Amino acid sequence: MRILVTGGAGFIGSAVCRLLAANPQNHVINVDKLTYAGNLTSLRQIENYPNYRFVEGDICDDIAVLGLLRSEKIEAIMHLAAESHVDRSIDGPAAFIETNIVGTFRLLNAALTYWRELPSDAKNAFRFHHISTDEVFGDLPFDSGIFTEETPYAPSSPYSASKAASDHLVRAWHETYGLPVVLSNCSNNYGPFHFPEKLIPLVILNALDGKPLPVYGAGANVRDWLYVEDHARALEVVVTKGAVGQNYNIGGHNEKTNLNVVETICDILDQKRPRKGGRRYRDLITFVSDRPGHDRRYAIDASKIERDLGWKPLETFETGLAKTIDWYLANEWWWEPIRSGRYAGERLGADVKG
Ligand code: NAD
């Protein structure tokens, strides 16, 4: 399949590009604006593959995107480009509105123009896959409830509100114009190549540096974690086998409190890289004031994608976390330049979105 991936230099997009490009039957075009979150070194493994191409570009530039769809004869779009960091959306929501809402609108327009030009068999086969988050469903109580595909939207942060808006636009382009779309809403991701401002890499790297390990509030907020390569496999299944107009929840049945996540990382590091003087990494845990509008709990019911499309995660939280820690221990070349830049110690609060 000839696939245009937007945001392929980001955390999840790069995992998707690496997965898709490993199959010589695929042709992968990665369009990315290279914001602070875009990193081409995450694509080093595939950068010289003949079936992979990177194009620096903005999804808001619908003329350029349309030209690319035509010249590359694209058969599917996997739309991951977004502003994705919740804390940043609180400090400065404008970029979130611009890329997540206006950008998705412009991408849909380019896709629709292109799709209308296709011959009928190619038209039927074309897919616009919109990749979204479980945060659009809002806040769950600590002790009950789970997000299904029917859960009403109730976003709490500027980030999740902008993603909710983009989900609605994608559905409307299907209902109104017939564009063949599929949507997926996934829980928190973690794994290799995760930007060091996010909770799991921040905790691993701060621990190795002997710095405080920030935990919002009492650390009681619950997130449902999925290893990024399991998410990438799920996205490949959705774009190739998903039913047009449907949305699929993706998650790994791994509900953990933030404190539990941080403590588990500490305990694994105690084994893999013991601190000097018999000290424990847990001693570095520091509670910081809570984020405004901080959702208590997210939990995903992934039974639809498991039942209808046969996808299942391969990693448990424990195996995925151990792999992730091993990866950060072995790949300082990737994270050190980012970490030594303006993000090192910039904030105490860590983002708990993936
Ligand atoms: P990320 O921030 O790591 O990557 C986003 C990428 O988009 C970056 O490479 C950035 O340069 C690019 N980008 C931003 N604005 C752009 C624009 N206007 N034009 C072109 N490229 C642009 O994000 P991520 O964590 O990889 O998330 C990818 C997608 O998955 C997002 O849509 C996000 O909402 C969704 N998602 C993320 C998680 C998670 O836990 N990280 C979970 C569920 C869904």
UniProtKB/TrEMBL annotation:
Catalytic activity: dTDP-alpha-D-glucose = dTDP-4-dehydro-6-deoxy-alpha-D-glucose + H2O
E.C. number(s) listed in UniProt: 4.2.1.46
Broad enzyme group: lyase
Pfam families attached to this UniProt entry: GDP_Man_Dehyd
Keywords: Lyase, NAD
UniProt keyword annotation of Lyase present: yes
Entries under Gene3D superfamilies matching the protein: NAD(P)-binding Rossmann-like Domain (3.40.50.720), UDP-galactose 4-epimerase, domain 1 (3.90.25.10)
GO biological process per UniProt: nucleotide-sugar metabolic process
Superkingdom of this protein's organism: Bacteria
Essential cofactor(s): NAD(+)
Claim: Lyase is one of the keywords in the record: yes
Domain NAD(P)-binding: from-to ranges: 4-324
Molecular function terms, GO-annotated: dTDP-glucose 4,6-dehydratase activity
Coiled coil: none
Protein family (similarity comment): Belongs to the NAD(P)-dependent epimerase/dehydratase family. dTDP-glucose dehydratase subfamily.
Name of the featured protein: dTDP-glucose 4,6-dehydratase
Organism listed in the record: Phyllobacterium sophorae
Lineage of origin: Bacteria, Pseudomonadati, Pseudomonadota, Alphaproteobacteria, Hyphomicrobiales
